[in-house]
Design brief:
Blueprint: H1 2-25, E1 36-39, E2 42-44, E3 69-74, E4 78-82, E5 85-90, E6 96-102, E7 115-117, E8 141-147, E9 157-159, E10 171-177, E11 180-192, E12 196-197, E13 206-207, E14 211-225, E15 231-234, E16 245-247, E17 251-254, E18 261-271, E19 274-283, E20 288-289, E21 293-301, E22 307-314, H2 318-324, H3 330-338, E23 342-343, E24 349-350, H4 356-369, H5 379-410, E25 415-416, E26 421-422, H6 425-431
Parallel strand pairs: 5-14, 16-22
Antiparallel strand pairs: 1-3, 2-14, 3-6, 4-5, 6-10, 7-11, 8-9, 8-11, 11-14, 12-13, 15-17, 17-20, 18-19, 18-21, 21-22, 23-24, 25-26
Helix pairs in contact: 1-5
Length: 432
C-alpha cells in the first residue's frame, strides 16, 4: 500500500542519516595501540672489549647491508623527539611497551650459512657493568635499565641467550614501562666460518680459524605522563575539588604518579582592597595546605610545555566567601561592610535597612564585575542529540501509521457464511 511504502522510504532515509551522524561522532585520532616508533641502530663493538666500542660498519664487515631485527615502542599517545632521544607521552589507558622483531634466522644470517649468532661464553658489558658469568652471554643478551624521577639507577634486567628463544619473524614484547628514563642494550656475537677444509671424498667439511665480531644495539628513551593536571582533594572529606572551590579545612595535592610535573603554589590573603602574597613556593605530591587564604596552583609539564592553573579558597572568613563564591570585588565587600551590610554564609551580601531592590542591585553589580566565562558548543553532544531526535521521529511515525493502517486492513472486508457476500468497509461506513 502507499502508506506502507512511505513508511519504508522514511525508515531508509532515517537510517542513512543516523549512520552519517554516528560516523561523525567517531574520533579521527589514531588509537594509542596503533602507534609504533622504531629505536636503535647496530654498531661494531670490537671483539672481547665488553661491547664498549662503537665502530662504523664498513663494506668489509660481515654485518654490512642487513639488520638483525628492530625494536619498536608501542602503546603511547604521542612522541617527542630531541636529537637521538625520544620521549613517549602516555595518557589514561595507555600501556607503553617495547617489542623486538627478529628479522633473521640466527643459524643462517642474511641467508648465508657461514654466518651465525655465536655462543658468547666470555661476554660482558662494560657500559652496563655486567660482569662475566659462567654461562656467559649465550646467543645474544638483552639488558634493560631504568632511571627513576629521583635519578636513581635500578638494577639492570639481564636476559641471557635472548635470541635463542626468539623465532625469526616473531614480534616479542620485552617489557611494559611506566614513567622514567630507560636504557636498552642488545649485545651479540657473530661467527663467520670463512675458512673451511674438507668436504671432498671421505673427508668431512670442517671450519678452522673462524672470525668473530661483537655487535651492539644501544638506545635510550623516556616515558612521561601527558597529563598536566594535579588532583586536589578536600583535606577533611577527601572529595575532589574543582577550580575555584571553597575548602574550609584545606586541601591536599595528588599528582597521580606524574613525577615529572613542576608544581608551584601561591597563597594570598585579603587585606582591605588588595591581596597580600604570603607564600609562593614549589610543591610536591602529597603536600597539604590548611592556612586560610586564596591559593593558586600552577602546574607545568616540562615534556609537553602545557600548563594548568587552578584556584582554591581555604578558610571560613565571610569576606573570603563573598569574594570566592559570590564574585564580589574587594572594593564592593569593603564598601558594603563599612555601610553596615551583612555577609551571609553563602557569601551573598545583604544591606541592612534597605529594600530588596537595593540588595538586588548590589548582586547585579557584582555579577558584572566578575569574570565572564565563555561556553562553547559541544559538537559531539549536538550530534548525539541529533541522533536521539531521529530515533524519536522514527518511533513516532511508526506508531502513527500502525494506528491508522492496521484497523483499515483488518476491517476492509466482511464475510457472511452461506452466501459468501463481501462488502467494502468504506461503503459500509457510508451506509451508516
Amino acid at each position: 500500500m502507499p502508506t506502507s511504502r512511505l513508511v519504508r522510504a522514511f525508515e531508509a532515509f532515517a537510517s542513512l542519516v543516523l549512520a552519517v551522524l554516528l560516523l561523525l561522532t567517531i574520533p579521527s585520532m589514531a588509537l594509542a595501540d596503533e602507534q609504533s616508533f622504531a629505536l636503535g641502530s647496530v654498531v661494531n663493538a670490537g671483539l672481547d672489549t665488553g661491547y664498549s666500542e662503537s665502530n662504523e660498519i664498513k663494506e668489509s664487515d660481515p654485518h654490512f647491508g642487513w639488520q638483525l631485527g628492530s625494536f619498536n615502542v608501542k602503546g603511547f599517545t604521542s612522541v617527542q623527539r630531541g636529537g637521538e632521544s625520544a620521549t613517549f607521552l602516555k595518557t589514561v589507558g595507555d600501556k607503553v611497551s617495547l617489542e623486538f622483531e627478529l628479522s633473521q634466522d640466527i643459524n643462517r644470517l642474511n641467508g648465508n650459512p657461514l654466518l651465525t649468532i655465536a655462543n658468547d661464553e666470555n661476554g660482558y658489558d662494560q657500559g652496563m657493568q655486567i660482569e662475566k658469568s659462567s654461562p656467559g652471554f649465550g646467543r645474544g643478551t638483552l639488558i634493560v635499565r631504568k632511571t627513576d624521577y629521583q635519578n636513581n639507577y635500578s638494577e639492570p634486567q639481564v636476559y641471557n641467550d635472548y635470541l635463542a628463544g626468539v623465532a625469526a619473524g616473531a614480534n616479542t614484547q620485552v617489557d611494559l614501562f611506566e614513567e622514567g628514563d630507560y636504557e636498552v642494550v642488545l649485545d651479540y656475537e657473530i661467527k663467520n666460518d670463512v675458512h673451511k677444509v674438507g668436504g671432498f671424498l671421505f673427508v668431512p667439511e670442517a671450519s678452522i680459524f673462524p672470525d668473530y665480531s661483537n655487535y651492539t644495539i644501544r638506545f635510550k628513551f623516556s616515558v612521561r605522563n601527558g597529563n598536566t593536571m594535579p588532583f586536589l582533594f578536600d583535606a577533611q572529606s577527601g572529595s575532589e575539588l574543582t577550580n575555584e572551590s571553597v575548602a574550609p579545612d584545606g586541601f591536599v595535592i595528588d599528582l597521580a604518579r606524574s613525577r615529572y610535573l613542576n608544581v608551584n603554589v601561591k597563597r594570598e590573603v585579603l587585606t582591605g582592597k588588595s591581596f597580600d602574597v604570603r607564600s609562593n613556593a614549589p610543591a610536591k605530591d602529597g603536600d597539604r595546605y590548611t592556612d586560610e587564604g586564596i591559593y593558586t596552583i600552577f602546574t607545568e609539564n616540562t615534556s609537553t610545555g602545557q600548563t594548568t592553573e587552578k584556584t582554591i579558597y581555604v578558610g571560613s572568613d565571610p569576606s573570603l566567601k563573598a569574594y570566592a563564591a559570590a564574585g564580589y570585588s574587594t572594593t564592593q565587600i569593603e564598601e558594603a561592610v563599612n555601610q553596615g551590610a551583612a555577609i551571609n554564609d553563602d557569601g551573598s551580601i545583604t544591606r541592612r535597612n534597605q529594600t530588596d531592590s537595593s540588595e538586588q542591585a548590589l548582586s547585579s553589580d557584582s555579577s558584572s564585575a566578575s569574570t565572564a566565562k565563555s561556553a562553547g558548543f559541544n559538537m559531539p553532544l549536538l550530534l548525539l542529540s541529533a541522533v536521539l531526535i531521529v530515533l524519536a521521529v522514527i518511533i513516532l511515525v511508526k506508531r502513527r501509521f500502525a494506528r491508522t493502517v492496521t484497523p483499515f486492513e483488518s476491517q476492509s472486508t466482511i464475510s457472511i457464511e452461506g452466501d459468501s457476500a463481501r462488502f467494502d468497509a468504506d461503503n459500509d461506513k457510508d451506509d451508516k
